[in-house]
């Protein structure tokens, strides 16, 4: 018999092996991300050799090839940050709602940020980067609250299926409103349509610096919420019995996810399915402990978005396919598989 307060040798051995396996997978993910970063810098519509890459990394832009690599460096950094933000936000949202279908795109958060930015541009002529980011975060937060309230109505409260349906309906409605706002404004229609697809092309360091503090704050708040999400996974009553302030824990974690979604949408446009696919794959490697799952999801999201960007540059050469299209092609079948495989109740 195992005494209370002591850990059996079998459990201790299992825990050591589990943590060792997680560390190995974490190292493998970091190595994969490093390889994808190198590939993203080296691969594009124009062929370059590694000497051009090294020269561009050293600050030289004397040749066309070196200039091409110099353009890819901020694009690679943006893909890394945006993918990490969306992957982490998806894992946090799934933990907050205990919903296996939770995703910034499916729950309407990205489209809420998109609608807010479009209204700001069309009606209030916002132009500064900080205005874009602030409006996008406000729109993302408002959409998250709206979907949660709608999904909470009726018997049973905010079940995963009701939240997914409310989010899907909200996304469609917001998408229609975006079109309605843009149609009378032919002067901004082209730019808005291109931005709405979602992509990391055209990234510059001038676009990255304003959004960086918001992303860092979102990363910090979300990662800090790992233990709280572990408590929430036990159920609200048990979490409260363990001394957790459930409403504060859920609100704090959701705030971090909203920051990440809003800031990413402001600079990249709405990119769907990264926050859905990545956490499910990372649970196979890290388990359900959010102290491991959240870092894995951030790294996995960066890998997925960077790989999608590289694929988008290759498949339609000499043109490019925006990363939002590639993630949709990957994520839509995955979403259908999740719906068919699970009974969509709780994690």
From TrEMBL:
Keyword Secreted included in the entry's annotation: no
InterPro entries on file: ABC_BtuC-like, ABC_transptr_permease_BtuC
Transmembrane segments: 73-93, 105-124, 130-151, 163-183, 208-226, 247-272, 292-311, 323-340
UniProt main location, coarse: membrane
UniProt keywords, alphabetically: Cell membrane, Membrane, Transmembrane, Transmembrane helix, Transport
UniProt keyword annotation of Transport present: yes
Membrane topology: Multi-pass membrane protein
Gene3D superfamilies in the cross-refs: ABC transporter involved in vitamin B12 uptake, BtuC (1.10.3470.10)
Any matching Pfam family: FecCD
Localization terms from the record: Cell membrane
Family: Belongs to the binding-protein-dependent transport system permease family. FecCD subfamily.
Protein's recorded name: Iron ABC transporter permease
């Amino acid at each position: 018999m195992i005494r209370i307060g002591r850990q059996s040798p079998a459990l201790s051995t299992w825990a050591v092996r589990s943590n060792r396996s997680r560390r190995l997978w974490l190292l493998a993910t970091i190595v994969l991300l490093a390889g994808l970063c190198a590939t993203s810098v080296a691969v594009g519509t124009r062929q370059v050799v590694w000497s051009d890459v090294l020269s561009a990394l050293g600050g030289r832009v004397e040749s066309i090839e070196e200039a091409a690599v110099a353009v890819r460096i901020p694009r690679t950094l943006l893909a890394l940050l945006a993918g990490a933000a969306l992957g982490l936000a998806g894992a946090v949202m799934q933990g907050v709602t205990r919903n296996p279908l939770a995703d910034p795109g499916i729950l309407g958060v990205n489209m809420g940020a998109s609608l807010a930015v479009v209204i700001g541009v069309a009606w209030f002529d916002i132009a500064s980067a900080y205005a874009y980011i602030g409006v996008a975060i406000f729109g993302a937060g408002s959409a998250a609250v709206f979907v949660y309230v709608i999904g909470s109505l009726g018997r049973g409260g905010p079940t995963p299926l009701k939240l997914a349906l409310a989010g899907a309906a909200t996304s469609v409605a917001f998408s229609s409103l975006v079109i309605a706002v843009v149609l009378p404004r032919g002067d901004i229609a082209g730019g808005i349509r291109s931005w709405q697809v979602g992509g990391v092309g055209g990234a510059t360091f001038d676009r990255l610096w304003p959004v960086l503090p918001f992303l860092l704050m979102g990363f910090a708040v979300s990662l800090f919420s790992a233990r709280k999400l572990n408590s929430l996974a036990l159920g609200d009553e048990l979490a409260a019995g363990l001394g957790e302030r459930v409403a504060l824990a859920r609100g704090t974690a959701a705030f971090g996810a909203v920051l990440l979604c809003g800031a990413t949408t402001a600079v990249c446009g709405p990119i769907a399915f990264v926050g859905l696919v990545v956490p499910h794959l990372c649970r196979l490697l890290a388990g359900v402990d959010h102290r491991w799952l959240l870092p894995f999801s951030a790294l996995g999201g960066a890998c997925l978005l960077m790989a999608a960007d590289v694929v988008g540059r290759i498949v339609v050469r000499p043109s490019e396919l925006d990363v939002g299209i590639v993630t949709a092609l990957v994520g839509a079948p995955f979403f259908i598989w999740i719906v068919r495989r699970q009974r969509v109740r709780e994690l």
